[in-house]
Amino acid sequence: MGNVIGLKKGKPDGPRVMIAAHIDEIGFYVKHIDDKGFLRLLPVGGWDPRMMVAQRVKVTTRTGEWLRGTLMSSTKPTHLLTADEAGKGLKIEECFVDLGMSGERVKELVELGDMVTMDRTSERVGDMVVSKTLDDRVCVFVMIEALRRLRNTAVDANIYAVATTQEEVGLRGATTAAYSLKPDIGIALDITLALDIPGMPEAEQVTRLGAGTAIKIHDSSLICHPKLVRHFRDVAEAKGIKYQLEMLPRGGTDAGGIQRSRGGVPSFTLSIPTRYVHTVNEMAHIEDIQATIDLLVAYLEVAHERKYDYSGDI
Amino acid sequence: MTAKISNNVFQIIPKGATPLSHDFNFDLLKTLCETPGVPAREEQIRTVVAKELRPLVD
After folding, report:
1. Considering only residues 163 to 202 of chain A, which have any Cβ-Cβ distance to chain B shorter than 8 Å?
2. Which of A213, A232, B20, B32 is the S-S candidate for B24 at Cβ 3.0 to 4.6 Å?
């Protein structure tokens, strides 16, 4: 499946801990090239058409070269729209990429199946990071930085760091990796919704930026193992790491795939609260990112100390 | 704006942004986010991640 898997060895009898952070991003495939060189797109992952248009994009060709283009919709300029036309919703089928080249040239360089991704830089804004694809590269970053912190530390757990593929289309890489690795514990690292923005009632905000890393209890792909939730909470409290609890009504992570591998794996998700998810302006608080690294490191040092079965109290 | 964060280590801070702790590797995060990779076309980001992970694992 193309997962990248690294093992930090622990003790032979230590638990096998699989950490998953996905490296794929939502984007598009080229599905049609017309004679004028305009590209039509097949979306991969959960796009909201309202967030797609009037963006710069990169088309990655079969040679790995990047072509820059604009993602636009087949609509009149605002000056010419009637009131009815202006209120009409946008469909993905109406969107196209303009590469600014002749049809002949485009057909020489681009072919069906080439990938198209948003073209935005990552920036620091106030206390935040704003970028495309924080989902889920910020968690890949967390996984790498946690391993860097543990580089000279012996831990009992055998840590499988897995940069997974194809999460956005159904947790596919994590599911197959879990089958191969046979983990005792599965931990997904992913972003979650932070809806602490104007117009959202407090009860529906899920998480808030700056309130710490998020210990997930529930999403629609898994209910985290209660003993793992408790262990992460205890570690955070013992170390003074800021955290918030997360109840996500819809959406899922790689932990949902790991949990259902073989006979079942105790699984959990550690989340980074993020505003404007699945747009080019995903926003996360630097202190929440740091807290996520801190908690992951602190947990991995003591992952061997508890058993995650279904007997006794939580 | 430039801030001194330790001996001989300085940080250029974008206008309006707060300084980072000295071990927050923003350049790596930026590289990870800006490298393309849709499902099943993760070859470029896979190369970046493998290079970073290799020295950190056994």
Report:
1. 163, 165-169, 172
2. B20
